[in-house]
Design brief:
Elements (H helix, E strand, L loop, with lengths): L5 E4 L7 E4 L4 H13 L3 E5 L5 H13 L2 E5 L2 E5 L9 E5 L4 H18 L2 E5 L10 H10 L1 E5 L8 E6 L7 E4 L4 H10 L9 E6 L5 H13 L5 E3 L3 E4 L10 E3 L4 H14 L5 E4 L12 H7 L3 E5 L2 E5 L9 E3 L7 H7 L7 E4 L11 H11 L4 E3 L3 E4 L8 E3 L5 H7 L15 E4 L11 H8 L9 E5 L6 H12 L2 E4 L3 H12 L6 H9 L3 E4 L2 E4 L2 E2 L7 H10 L3 H13 L6 E5 L2 H5 L5 E6 L2 H14 L6 H17 L12 E4 L5 H15 L7
Parallel strand pairs: 2-15, 3-14, 6-7, 10-11, 18-19, 22-23, 24-29, 24-30, 25-29, 30-31
Antiparallel strand pairs: 1-23, 3-5, 4-5, 7-9, 8-9, 11-13, 12-13, 15-17, 16-17, 19-21, 20-21, 26-27, 27-28
Helix pairs in contact: 1-2, 1-3, 1-6, 3-5, 5-6, 7-8, 7-9, 9-11, 13-21, 14-15, 14-16, 15-17, 19-20
């Protein structure tokens, strides 16, 4: 997950490859509550690991459930229909799929068995209406107090006496989560009578109710449905654990990659695993909308393959009541259409993590689109010319993921522009690794992928600084100083002699190499310590004279320029390898400061050394590096000089990050 203030997406191009989706948020939190209310142990496989599921797990623990997590398996020992604690305060973040059903379940438990519970969330949760659910619970006889504004969390539940002699009435035109909450809670109170729920008005988001009914059946609750207006929970219904259940992947999250295939799956399809034709989620019908816009989709029971068909995409006018969350993705796909796209019946967007109609309109206008909005619709006009934009995400995971698709503007215009996603870590709500998954299946022209170079003399701290900057940005690293040693190590293992220039070049060209922090991995194994061995260093000096090897290593270094960006350190990164890098740093430190650092490093490894000798050696090496015939050590003409003699690593990293942000175009935007 990119836990940084912003993530800059360079212009993105064609897409191909396979994405494995995380578990569904809607299914995960429903299953967690059902398992928590049942007697016995329920084992969930592939449960979504996200902010929303974490707050539900924390709440269940507080209420007395025993929870064990082991890799992809989560075991919940349920409460058997009654809370183990009579009083609790629960913090539920911004998770509507936790706040609504827990409110109903705890209100019923407090009435049936006594209890006193307070439910709170983040400030945005306290702005999300829950009044219709509160009214329904109060109508049953539950005592529910709104501790702030009436009709909104935080809530205090303090017992009461249930009256289930008449149908429970709940509005259906605000959020389907209110009906889901009652359907999950009322089996706790139907030991002696049928319990009937009647929906007032049109029920929105019907597919989410289908998910709820499907999962209730798996836990032994066979709800009788009369259309979408009346639901009867039979007398004597009781939660029974089904034992082990797999958690289906998230169909809403699939929408971003379905759209990706429709927009950028030109040469090969995007394969999406974990959800397919056999899905129980309503948002799987996003496939139909994508096909209407021109996508070519091949569906398997648990996978989809999507590629571009029509281009530009076809404009649509669609009632989106059946895919309320996934429909947000259509709003960004509309940028690539052949005419205006209208999405209707989406009033529920306004009561989600943010007012999504207003937010979507605002952010699409930033990239240059003409957008019309109403109480329950949005109309987006296609774009011929995108603008670079910094996208505000409103602490809303779907805003971040949807708007990332605006980075594919290079498929529309000759001079593509980057897109900045503010607060990218907000995707942790449902898809913590979304951006990693995106980068794994998309390509970008190397010239668009940003590079920061850090050159400097021996022992100046280049590797440590590069690793720190890359970690903060979520970028790749290249430690060019280790390449001759890695080549020497690989050649020794392959039996290639130091004087076999062609053989050495082949070895270098085929290196399977990656860097993690300051560690070096060759063929998947950590060789950081091995590279320090004297024999390896000796051979590295011997082979560095061969032009064919240097050429192979040049190509290898260029290949490290991968999405989302690269931090490369060495002695000629800014002058020879990446001369067009947008930010070049020349790192310096006094010979005395570098000698002291090297002295400390050697002592920490149990190696004795003389400080004066180390300083003399460094000064001599500096002189040789400055005057060598090939790629002499010198700053690039446009490099920024950083003398870190008196700076900590953290201070140096922060300074480089500040310089990087100043170099990006987004500070010029209004």
């Amino acid at each position: 997950m990119f836990a940084l203030p912003c993530l800059d997406l360079p212009p993105l191009g064609h897409a191909a490859g396979t994405v494995r989706l995380p578990g569904s948020k809607s299914i995960s939190n429903r299953l967690l509550l059902l398992a928590g209310l049942s007697a016995g142990q329920t084992t969930l496989v592939d449960l979504l690991d996200s902010d929303d599921t974490q707050v539900m797990l924390d709440a269940l623990r507080t209420l007395g459930c025993a929870i064990e997590r082991d890799g992809d398996t989560t075991r919940i020992t349920g409460l058997g229909g009654r809370a183990a604690v009579a009083s609790a305060e629960l913090f539920l973040g911004n998770a509507g799929t936790a706040m609504r059903p827990l409110t109903a379940a705890l209100a019923v438990l407090a009435c049936e068995h006594g209890g006193d519970y307070t439910l709170r969330g983040v400030p945005r949760m306290h702005e999300r209406p829950i009044g219709d659910l509160v009214d329904a619970l109060r109508g049953l006889g539950a005592e529910v107090d709104c501790l702030g504004q009436e009709g909104y969390p935080p809530l205090h539940l303090r017992g009461g006496r249930l009256d289930l002699g008449q149908p429970v009435k709940v509005r259906g035109d605000v959020s389907s989560q209110f009906l889901t909450a009652l359907l999950l809670a009322l089996p706790l109170a139907c030991a002696e009578r049928d319990v009937t729920i009647e929906v007032v008005g049109e029920l929105i988001s019907k597919p989410y109710i289908e998910i709820t009914l499907n999962l209730l059946a798996r836990f032994g609750i066979a709800v009788q449905r009369e259309g979408w207006q009346r639901f009867v929970i039979p007398r004597g219904s009781r939660y029974q654990t089904p034992g082990t259940l797999p958690v289906e992947a998230d169909a809403s999250s699939a929408s971003y990659f379905i759209a990706l295939g429709a927009i950028a799956g030109v040469d090969a399809p995007v394969r999406i695993e974990g959800v397919g034709a056999g899905s129980i989620q309503g948002d799987i019908r996003f496939v139909e909308a994508a096909e209407a816009m021109g996508a070519v989709v091949s569906a398997e029971p648990n996978a989809l393959e999507v590629r571009r068909g029509a281009w530009p995409l076809k404009a649509i006018d669609l009632d989106c009541n059946h895919i309320p969350d996934a429909a947000m993705t259509l709003a960004v796909m509309a940028l690539y259409a052949d005419g205006p796209c209208t999405l209707r019946n989406i009033a529920s967007w306004r009561v989600k993590e943010t007012d999504r109609i207003a937010a979507m309109a605002c952010e699409l206008r930033k990239v240059g689109a003409t957008v019309e909005e109403g109480a329950d619709f949005i109309r987006v006009h296609p774009l011929a010319q995108f603008r670079a934009a910094s996208i505000h995400t409103y602490d809303d995971h779907r805003m971040a993921m949807c708007l990332s698709l605006a980075a594919f503007n290079g498929l529309q215009q000759a001079e593509p522009v980057p897109v900045r996603i503010e607060d990218p870590k907000c995707v942790a709500k449902t898809f913590p690794d979304y951006f990693e998954a995106l980068f794994s299946v998309v390509r970008s022209e190397p010239r668009h992928i940003p590079v920061i170079t850090i050159d400097g003399p021996t022992a100046s701290g280049k590797g440590t600084l590069a690793a720190g900057v890359a970690a903060r940005l979520g970028w790749h690293t290249l430690d060019s100083g280790s390449l001759y040693r890695v080549s020497a190590l690989a050649a020794r293992r392959a039996g290639v002699a130091p004087d076999d220039e062609a053989g050495l070049a082949r070895v270098a060209a085929g290196l399977n190499l990656r860097f993690e922090g300051t560690s070096v991995f060759l063929d998947g194994a950590d060789v950081t310590d091995v590279l320090r061995e004297e024999a390896v260093g000796t051979m590295a000096s011997q082979i560095s004279v061969w032009p064919a090897l240097r050429a192979a290593l040049y190509e290898l270094q260029c290949s490290f320029r991968r999405l989302p960006g690269l931090v490369a350190d060495g002695r000629d990164m800014g002058t020879v390898i990446f001369p067009a890098a947008p930010l070049k740093i020349f790192l310096t430190a006094s010979a005395a400061a570098r000698a002291e650092r090297r002295h400390r490093q050697l002592l920490e490894r149990g190696i004795s050394a003389n400080l004066d000798s180390l300083r003399a050696d460094l000064e001599a090496r500096d002189e040789r590096d400055r005057h060598r015939a090939t790629a002499p050590l010198k700053p690039a003409e446009d490099a920024l000089e950083l003398d870190n003699s008196g700076m900590t690593v953290v201070e140096s990293v922060e300074l480089v990050l500040d310089w990087w942000l100043q170099r990006r175009p987004f500070d010029l935007l209004g």
